[in-house]
């Protein structure tokens, strides 16, 4: 198996005050887990980030961002290029033709645009996010992905075969607080169910949901406190 005898490390920031799965690192975390690749996940703090920056620069990486993937000491960064690299190396999660790869790339680009639309709400509780964000921004985006999934029958964007884009869609739904807003969208619902029942992901994602349930309780307490102070 590819990566089986290699040392693989995922680097991302440790983000405090929010769910541990927030932001870009989780996309690669999910892909590595689903593929069954043994890896270490290092979450960097402000204190050790300067050292990590120097490590990136030492390998001629001057766009100093995370996530980064390290394979036997060789570093690469940027979320979608890493996921495409993994897909090529594994011979799965990608297209079977140049046309399919281009289609996946276009959908991945749409996922990046989607993230730019909701990332300003990263650190807000559900109750703090304006409702018109979901009606005016999220819902039209969900409709476009619903249509893409319907085109080939699902449950994934290329049909029965999971791709890196399906992972991007799932995690965008999570980060945009939209996993519970899929009423009337059977194809997106089916994608979520299919991904959450993947053998290497189901236990982990159940644990994530339990963590998020505890976060929701904390959110409710903050909402009550804010209302009392108003």
Automatic annotation (TrEMBL):
InterPro entries: Glutathione-S-Trfase_C-like, Glutathione-S-Trfase_C_sf, Glutathione_S-Trfase_N, GST_C, GST_superfamily, Thioredoxin-like_sf. Residues 97-216 form the GST C-terminal domain. GO terms for molecular function: glutathione transferase activity. It comes from the Eukaryota. GO terms for biological process: glutathione metabolic process. Residues 12-94 form the GST N-terminal domain. The keyword Ligase does not apply. Keywords: Transferase. This is Class gamma glutathione S-transferase. The lineage of its organism: Eukaryota, Fungi, Fungi incertae sedis, Mucoromycota, Mucoromycotina.
């Amino acid at each position: 198996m590819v990566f089986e005898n290699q040392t693989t490390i995922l680097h991302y920031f440790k983000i405090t005050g929010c769910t541990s799965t927030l932001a870009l690192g989780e996309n690669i975390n999910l892909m590595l887990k689903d593929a069954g690749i043994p890896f270490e996940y290092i979450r960097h703090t402000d204190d050790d980030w300067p050292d990590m920056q120097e490590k990136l620069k030492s390998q001629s990486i001057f766009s100093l961002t995370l996530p980064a993937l390290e394979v036997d000491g060789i570093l690469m960064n940027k979320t979608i290029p890493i996921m495409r690299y993994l897909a090529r190396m594994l011979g799965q999660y990608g297209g079977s033709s140049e046309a399919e790869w281009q289609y996946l790339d276009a959908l991945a680009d749409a996922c990046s645009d989607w993230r730019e639309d909701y990332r300003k709400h990263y650190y807000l509780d559900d109750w703090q996010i304006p409702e018109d964000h979901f009606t005016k921004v999220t819902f039209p985006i969900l409709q476009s992905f619903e249509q893409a999934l319907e085109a080939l029958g699902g449950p994934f964007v290329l049909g029965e075969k999971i791709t890196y884009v399906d992972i991007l869609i799932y995690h965008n739904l999570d980060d945009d607080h939209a996993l519970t807003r899929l009423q009337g969208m059977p194809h997106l619902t089916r994608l979520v169910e299919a991904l959450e029942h993947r053998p290497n992901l189901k236990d982990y994602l159940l644990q994530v949901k339990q963590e998020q349930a505890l976060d929701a309780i904390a959110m409710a307490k903050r909402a009550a406190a804010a209302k009392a102070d108003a």
